[in-house]
C-alpha cells in the first residue's frame, strides 16, 4: 500500500535470535558444536564449540571435578565451589551467552531450567598460530628482532613488557559485525594529545564492516583520504618501533588476528626512518637516511627524465655522452617511451611473479628472468643497455624505504610521470611534480598535515626530518605534534677529565 | 575587524611573506632588464630601489584601507562606501582586472616555453595541461594555494645559486660610472620597473584569511624588502654580465644569462631554469584567479565558485587557441601595464583618502 | 556516483586527445642530424655558403663517421631548411660548438649573421667563434680529415693554458654590441701539411675583420686582457753582442688603467706574476742583484712590446682591449664619437711590474 519511508537498517546483519534455545538449536547445525553430560541422569549439560576451547583444560580441570561430585549439583552457583577455575559467570543475558560461546567458553546449564547459564572462559587463541615473528620484512642487522604475531594478548604482552609504565593505557573496542575482532588503542596517558585518541576511537566506533582481515585494511578504513596512493599511517611489525612511537606521543592501534601495528599520526619524513637509525652513530645514520630519500626521488624520476631528454631535449646531454647514447640506441626500433614501458612492465611482472613462485623454483627463475631476459633484450636490440641500467637501478631503489606501503606508492607513481614525460617532455615532469606537491599538501594523518614540519613550517623540525641527530638531542618530543608533555629525559653531560690543547 | 572566515580556513601569519613574494615574482623578472635601461642606462638598479621604497608606502596605505573595512577585505570596503550596487559593480571590475593579469602571465609563460624549449608544438596542448593543473590547485581552496606559494618560493631559491656562477663572468666597468643620468631618466626607468612589483594588491582580497594581523604586517614588509633585494641583485649581475649595447637587443636577458651555465652532466641549464620557473609562476596564476573568483562570489552569492573557475579557465584556453597572433599579446601587455599602474598608483591612494574620512562600520 | 563517472570520462577523453596528437612532434635523439661545427663563406654573387659537419653514429658501431654538408643560400635563415634536403634526419642546430667564418666573409661584414645569433634562443652562448685565414670550406674539409670533431676543444685548451685570451660567443657579442670595444676572435690557419692550426687572433672593426695579430702580439694582448693567462713569452735580449733568451710563463696578470682627464692621457699599470722557464746561464736566481736585473730587462722589453702593440692597434683604429669602455667608466663626459676621432693619437704609456714567483722547469 503506502510506501514506507525506507528506514535505516539496524546495524545487525546477522540473523537475530530470540532466545537462548534458539542459539543452541542453531549451533547444533555445526558439527563442531558438542554437548556433553557428565552425569548419568543427563541433568547437567555442557555445551561448547570444540574447535574454540582448550580441550586439555576441559579434560583436566573441569570434568574430573565434576565427576568427583558425589552429590548431585542442584544450583549452578555450586559450580563455583567445585570447579577450580576462576571467572565463572552466571547469567541469563542472551547476548552475553552468545558472545561467550563464540569466544571459546563452555556453557553449563540444566536441561530443564532455561533461565540460568554458567559460562567458563577456556579459549585457546593461539591454536594454529606461529610462535614468533623475526621481522624478515623490516630487517635490521642490529637491534631486537622481536615482532608482533597474530594474537592480541601476546602483542599486548610484548608492548607492556617493554614499556613498564603505569601511564600506558590500552583501550579495547570490538568492531566487526560478524567477526567481532578486538582492536586495542594504546597510548601514553599524560603524553599523547587526547585529540588523536578521540579521533581514532571515534572513527573505529563508527565503522560498519562485517569482517576485516588485517589491521592494514582497518588502517585504510579509518584513514583521512582513501583516494591517495600514499599511506597515511605507518604499519610495522617491530615492537621497538611501536614502543618508540608511543613514547613520542603517537597512538598505536593493534588488532587481533593481525601481526601489524598501525601508528598514527605520522609525517612524511618518518617513512624514511628505520629503528636501526637509533642504534648506529648519528653520522652514519644520517648518511643512510639521505641515501634513502635520494633513492626514492631517483626511483620516481630517473626513467621519466630519460624519456624526456631523449625524446625532446637532446641539447642537455654533454657532448661526450652523446656518442655512447646514440650508439646504444642505434638499432632500437621503438621510440624511448615504448622501450621504457616495455622494460618497466617486465620488471613489474618479474616482481609479481617472483612473489608467488614456490620457493625452490623461485630462485632459478629469478636468475633466468633477471639476467637472461635483460641480456637477451639488449642483444636483440629491443632496448638499449643504458636504459637497462637505469631501469634496474630505479626498480631497486624503490625499495629503500623501510615501509612496504610507501615503496608500493613509489612503484605506482613512476608510470604517470613516464607518460607525462613522453607527451610533454620536461615540462610534463614538472607539471607532475606540481600535482604531487599539491596532492601531498592536502593529505592529513589523523588530522595532522602530512608534510609537517616542512610545510606548514615548524621551527626545529626541518633538521630532524632529514638527519638523525645524537640520542642526547632527542630529549624533547617534537612540539609540533602537540603532546601534553615535552621533555623525555635530561641528558647529563659527562664528567670525564677533558683532553685537548686548552687543558694541558 | 571581524571577518566571516572560519578559523580552520585561515593560515599562519608567516605565510604572508610567501604569498606576497611569490605573487610579485612572475614573468616580468625574465625580461625586465632590457626595459629599464631605456631611461637610466647602467644606473637603473637604483630606480628599482626607489620603486621598492614606494611600494612599502603603498602597502601601508593598503593596510589602512583594510583596517577601515567591515570584513577586512576590499570587497566589503566597496560595498560600505559605494553602496551595494555600485560596490558590487566595482568588485566585478576588480575581478576582471585580476583575471586579465592572470591571463597575461599564463600567455607569456606559454610563449616562453614555445620559443625557448619546444618549437613546433602548438600552444593548446600546454594550455590544456596548465589549465588542469590550475584547476586542481585552486579547487583545493586557499590553503592549497598557500602551500603552492610556499613551495614556489622555497624550491626555486636554489636557482639563486646560479647567480654565483655568473659572477665569474663579471666585468665591473660595465656598471660604472655611477650617477650619470638625470632625474627624468630615472623616472622613466622607474615607470618601466614598476610592473615588477605588481601582485601584492591581491592581499586586499585574501587578508581576512591570515591569522594575527599585527604579526602578519611585519612579514608583508619583509616580503617586499626581499623582492626588492632580489631584483636589485639580479639587475646588478645582469649589468655586470652584459654590455649595455647588447642588452638593448635582447628580449629575454635573464634567460640568455642562464644559458651560459654548464654543469658536468648537464649542458644548457636554461631548460631546468625555465621548468622550475613554472613553480614560480603557478602561485601568481592561482592567487589572481582565486581573488577574481572570490570577488565574483561576494557579488553574486548564488553561483558556485567551481563553475566560475571553469568559466575563467575556458576563457584562458580560448584566448590561447584563437587569439594567438602577436598583435593581441602586445595589446594585452599594454593593457596590463596601464591598468596595473592606475590601480596601484591611482586607485589605492584614492581609496586611502576615502578611508581616512570614513568611520569604521562594525 | 554520477560525478565520479563524469570526471572519469572527462579524464579519459583528455588523455586520448592528447596522446593522439602528442606523439607526432618528438625529436628522438637517434633520429637527428646534430651539427657540431658550422662554417660560413661568401660566394662571388654575395650569397652565403654554409658548411656543416655532422657526426654519424649509427652507421657503424666502432667509430663515428663525419659527414659534411654544403649549401649555398641567399640568406642565413635558409641554411637549415636547405641542408635538410640532403639528409634523412632533421638538422638540429642546437649543439653547434664552433662557428667558423671564412676569410672573405669575415672581411666583408658579418653583421647579419651576428644579429641572427643574438635572437635565436636555441644557440648556446658558450660556443666558440673563430675566423680562418682560408675559406671556411677548406678549413673544415682539412679538419674532417682528422676524423674527429674536437675543434672546440682545440680552441678551448689553447685559451686556458696557452696564449689565446679567453673568449666565447658571449664575450664576442658583448664586445660587438657594446660601446667602446671591438670584437676579436681566434684565427685558424692551415699549415703546410694541411692541418688546422691556431694562429693568433683577429680583430674586427665594426663588423669586418681588420687586423690579424701574430702569436707574440697575441700573447701580449692576452696579458693585458685576461687575468689568468698562462702564456709563455720569449724575450731576446742583446747584452754585449750576445743574444740571450729568457722565456717565462705567466701565472697571473692584473692590469690597471689610469685615465688623466685633463690631459687626456692613458696609463696602463700591468702587474705580472711569472715563472721563469729559461734564463741565461750568467744569472743566478739566488742573488737579488741578478733577479732585479733580470726583472728590469724583462720589464723594459715588455713595455716596448706593449707600446708597439698599442701603436699597431691605434694605427688600424681598432680597440679590442676596450680602452673606450674603460675610459667611459672613469669619465662622465666620455662620448664615443669624439673619443674615437682622437684615438689614433692618444698617448698610452705602459708601466710593467714583474714578480717572479719561481723558476719552473717546464719546457
From TrEMBL, chain A:
Keywords: Membrane, Transmembrane, Transmembrane helix. Its main location: membrane. It is a multi-pass membrane protein. It is found in: Cell membrane; Membrane. Coiled coil: none annotated. The chain crosses the membrane at residues 290-312, 371-395, 415-437. GO terms for biological process: spore germination. GO terms for cellular component: plasma membrane. InterPro entries: Spore_Ger, UPF0353/GerABKA_families. Belongs to the GerABKA family. This is GerA spore germination protein. It comes from Gracilibacillus kekensis.
TrEMBL record, chain B:
Belongs to the amino acid-polyamine-organocation (APC) superfamily. Spore germination protein (SGP) (TC 2.A.3.9) family. Keywords: Germination, Membrane, Transmembrane, Transmembrane helix, Transport. The keyword Aminoacyl-tRNA synthetase does not apply. It is found in: Membrane. GO terms for cellular component: membrane. The chain crosses the membrane at residues 12-32, 44-66, 86-109, 121-138, 145-166, 186-207, 219-242, 271-293, 305-324, 336-357. GO terms for biological process: spore germination. Pfam families: Spore_permease. Its main location: membrane. It is a multi-pass membrane protein. InterPro entries: Spore_GerAB (IPR004761). This is Spore germination protein (Amino acid permease).
From TrEMBL, chain C:
InterPro entries: GerAC_N, Spore_GerAC-like, Spore_GerAC-like_C, Spore_GerAC_C_sf. Residues 27-189 form the Spore germination protein N-terminal domain. Its main location: membrane. Keywords: Germination, Lipoprotein, Membrane, Palmitate, Signal. It is a lipid-anchor. GO terms for biological process: spore germination. It is found in: Membrane. It comes from the Bacteria. Residues 199-360 form the Spore germination GerAC-like C-terminal domain. One of its GO terms (cellular component) is membrane. PANTHER family: SPORE GERMINATION PROTEIN B3. Belongs to the GerABKC lipoprotein family. This is Germination protein, Ger(X)C family.
